[in-house]
């Protein structure tokens, strides 16, 4: 029989380009950060479940008016930080903040008809031009919680305690700053008084605050310029413009904070720049040795937000955080993050037939709530056993071609070193004996 002529394989011509650089202001999350993301997101998820919050999510694209109306059309955030574009003659934006978006969804789907309180939590990417947040990142991961339908400060305290205790458990040193923004009437009167004060100090404050005295006097209270910080101490305080009910809400909130032993301090100059906040507001900071405390989470009353977006009158409060900022603080404090839990079982396989059976058997093991690892890209037994040892598996199961045919599996108890052949139908029971023997 003539030999078949050897034919060279054609060479694939792959069109190459230079690796596109990361867009300025964007950041990749790498495997080295996995333990920080996993620990924080797991903690925030557990809190949501423990406190009976329901998950919601919103699209990455919203109408421009959603943010212009709720945050403030003339605010720096809306004018400079939204990523906007026109689609079919309609102005759109990429999601820049979950809080208005979640309330828009709350109204759109008539969730206000659900049983009070309505407790929602959310999380995902927000995208901006990178000017507003200190990190200068254009994409960040926001997580937070809403409570709708409760006027009582007990709802606010619950939100604060949830995150305060989470931060303590993560090894941080949190405390809470508290203030009140009052209601619509009181805030208008306060803004007039503050504008008058700023104008009376024109020569003693920074140029930017002088220019914004009429348009946005609250910017003055957040100014970090040394000229302004000296003058802020003597500025009018909004607590003097609160109504009786607003005073009562703030006082009861502080009383409850004392009862739950959450460390806090009043900060009469604290303002949340987004226009949808009113009444009692709060921010959680991490205390640092150099006194340059770091903001971890922001929240407060959003009692008007539903009505602002065409929904029913609905008292509400919220709190949210930026995951990257919290992780950065955890890293800077060199907080010890626990390693991922070791697998209960490592399943090794030694042939193509065994590999196919192992793929099925992995799912059978996972249904029994075992943490199972198998690497189907490896064929050599030694490399698989080395991996199992490094990962700290308690049981190693080895499935070869002979075992597949016989309906058996080789089981090794790593701690005792005992190894035996077990009927594959009985191996789950045998694994349980080893895992739960202590």
From TrEMBL:
<keyword id="KW-0030">Aminoacyl-tRNA synthetase</keyword>
<dbReference type="Pfam" id="PF03129">
    <property type="entry name" value="HGTP_anticodon"/>
</dbReference>
<dbReference type="InterPro" id="IPR041715">
    <property type="entry name" value="HisRS-like_core"/>
</dbReference>
<dbReference type="GO" id="GO:0006427">
    <property type="term" value="P:histidyl-tRNA aminoacylation"/>
</dbReference>
<dbReference type="GO" id="GO:0004821">
    <property type="term" value="F:histidine-tRNA ligase activity"/>
</dbReference>
<dbReference type="InterPro" id="IPR004154">
    <property type="entry name" value="Anticodon-bd"/>
</dbReference>
<dbReference type="GO" id="GO:0000166">
    <property type="term" value="F:nucleotide binding"/>
</dbReference>
<feature type="binding site">
    <location>
        <position position="142"/>
    </location>
    <ligand>
        <name>L-histidine</name>
    </ligand>
</feature>
<dbReference type="InterPro" id="IPR004516">
    <property type="entry name" value="HisRS/HisZ"/>
</dbReference>
<feature type="domain" description="Class II Histidinyl-tRNA synthetase (HisRS)-like catalytic core">
    <location>
        <begin position="25"/>
        <end position="326"/>
    </location>
</feature>
<keyword id="KW-0436">Ligase</keyword>
<protein>
    <recommendedName>
        <fullName>histidine--tRNA ligase</fullName>
        <ecNumber>6.1.1.21</ecNumber>
    </recommendedName>
</protein>
<comment type="similarity">
    <text>Belongs to the class-II aminoacyl-tRNA synthetase family.</text>
</comment>
<dbReference type="InterPro" id="IPR045864">
    <property type="entry name" value="aa-tRNA-synth_II/BPL/LPL"/>
</dbReference>
<feature type="binding site">
    <location>
        <begin position="276"/>
        <end position="277"/>
    </location>
    <ligand>
        <name>L-histidine</name>
    </ligand>
</feature>
<feature type="domain" description="Anticodon-binding">
    <location>
        <begin position="345"/>
        <end position="433"/>
    </location>
</feature>
<dbReference type="Pfam" id="PF13393">
    <property type="entry name" value="tRNA-synt_His"/>
</dbReference>
<dbReference type="InterPro" id="IPR036621">
    <property type="entry name" value="Anticodon-bd_dom_sf"/>
</dbReference>
<dbReference type="GO" id="GO:0005737">
    <property type="term" value="C:cytoplasm"/>
</dbReference>
<keyword id="KW-0547">Nucleotide-binding</keyword>
